[in-house]
Amino acid sequence: MIGPTTSGTDLPSTDLDPEPGQKMYKAMGERWAMLIVREVTFGTYRFGELHRKLGIAPNVLTKRLNSLVDAGMLERHQYREDKPWYEYHLTKIASELVPAWVMIARLAESHRVGSPRELVHSQCGEPTNPVLTCSACHHPIAPGDLTYAERTGSSS
Questions:
Q1: Cα-to-chain-centroid distance, residue 41
Q2: How many CB atoms lie within 10 A of CB 141?
Q3: How much is the average pLDDT of 81-90?
Q4: Is the four-CA dihedral 13, 19, 25, 29 of positive or negative sign?
Q5: How is the chain split into domains, by residue range?
Q6: CA distance 76 to 46
Q7: What is the C-alpha to C-alpha distance for residues 18 and 16, in angstroms, rounded to an integer?
Q8: Residues forming beta bridges with residue 127, ordered by sequence position
Q9: Which residue from 27, 104, 124, 145 could staple onto 71, CB 3.0 to 4.6 Å apart?
Q10: Which residues of 61-97 are buried (b: 16+ CB within 10 A; e: fewer)?
Q11: Radius of gyration (Cα) for the chain, nearest Å?
Q12: pLDDT on residue 125
């Protein structure tokens, strides 16, 4: 499982395995990693496309892609039989983070110098303004609206 854990005798322990989470946090903290993941999230899958869109040095891009694959954030798929050319796609766990990345992209675009771009929903072709909402009541969630509570009625 992925998540934070505590260590030491004074702190409560959990049954969460820290290793996968630590690898992801470390990989995402590397320079260029968030931009690479953003581009893959929005449909840029190939090395050459990532290189052109980001302007990142090829050796750095290779290192970051390898790091993100090793951390379980990206999967590598060979798309040519005759050459070792790959596409990079989000893993299942990374796909679960897409709502967070969309919100970060929205925030970044709202503070962009020049004319900001807008997010367009590919299924309907209309501009969209994604909003985090409660899955139960469908009201928007604002800072301070969330707390943690123990689950009730669930069996492990």
A1: 8
A2: 13
A3: 94
A4: positive
A5: 18-110
A6: 10
A7: 6
A8: 120
A9: 27
A10: beebbebbbebbbbbeeeeeeeeeebbbebbeebeeb
A11: 19
A12: 93
Is residue 64 predicted with pLDDT exceeding 60? yes
Structurally, at CATH architecture level, domain 18-110 sits in Orthogonal Bundle (1.10)
Model pLDDT for residues 7-25, shown as the tens digit of each residue: 444 444 444 555 667 777 7
Instruction: Give the sign of the dihedral formed by CA 62, CA 68, CA 72, CA 76.
Output: negative
Q: What is the residue-averaged pLDDT of the chain?
A: 83
Q: Torsion angle of alpha carbons 90, 119, 116, 68, nearest 10°?
A: 0
- CA 33/CA 27 separation, integer angstroms: 7
Render the chain in DSSP notation, one character per residue.
--S----SSSS---S--HHHHHHHHHHHTSTTHHHHHHHHHTT--BHHHHHHHH---HHHHHHHHHHHHHTTSEEEEE--SSS--EEEEE-HHHHTTHHHHHHHHHHHHHT-SSSPP--B-TTT--B-----B-TTT-PBP-TT--------S---
Please give the structure tokens belonging to residue 72: 């379980």
